[in-house]
Amino acid sequence: MTIRVVLTDDQPLVRAALQMVITDTTDIEVVGEAGDGAAGDALIAPAVTRRLIKEFTARPATSPPRRSELDAITAREREVLTLVGRGLSNTEIAGELSISIATAKTYLTRLLAKLNARDRVQLVILAYEAGLVATSR
Taking phi first (over 0 means left), then psi (-120 to 50 degrees means alpha), and beta for anything else, what does residue 82 get? Predict the structure, then answer.
């Protein structure tokens, strides 16, 4: 079964990068693009995020880990970043760490600010580049 997706991001470069990853995947098809949407919220379902992560990790790294940026985050934020890197949703992160969903969202907001990341996808990439999540190659 082929999954059909519409890419929506205000950054053409982000859309192009996602499309390249998705195009190389045999069972996901990009059927459209949009430059704005879903008020800055992410619309990628956790299951799709996990598949994108798997595809991303199968590719060779293109940039070195940004370890110095990770020095600015707390141990708990590092735990949250690791779980984001594994593709967990806010609800799953909250359950895993025995915290409220609101607290999980607060940690994500702090991570986005401290790591200068635009969205959850960039956090996932950073978690892999930093070696917080083991690849399954």
Answer: alpha
- Label residue 28 exposed, middle or buried (CB < 10 Å: 0-12, 13-18, 19+): middle
Helices (H) and strands (E) in the chain, counts: 7, 2
| C-alpha 1, offset from chain centre | 24
Bridge partners, residue 32, by sequence: 6
Q: Is the pLDDT of residue 40 over 50?
A: yes
Give backbone dihedrals phi and psi of 78, rounded to 5 degrees, phi first: -65, -40
Q: Radius of gyration over alpha carbons of the chain, in Å?
A: 15
User: pTM score > 0.70 for this model?
Assistant: no
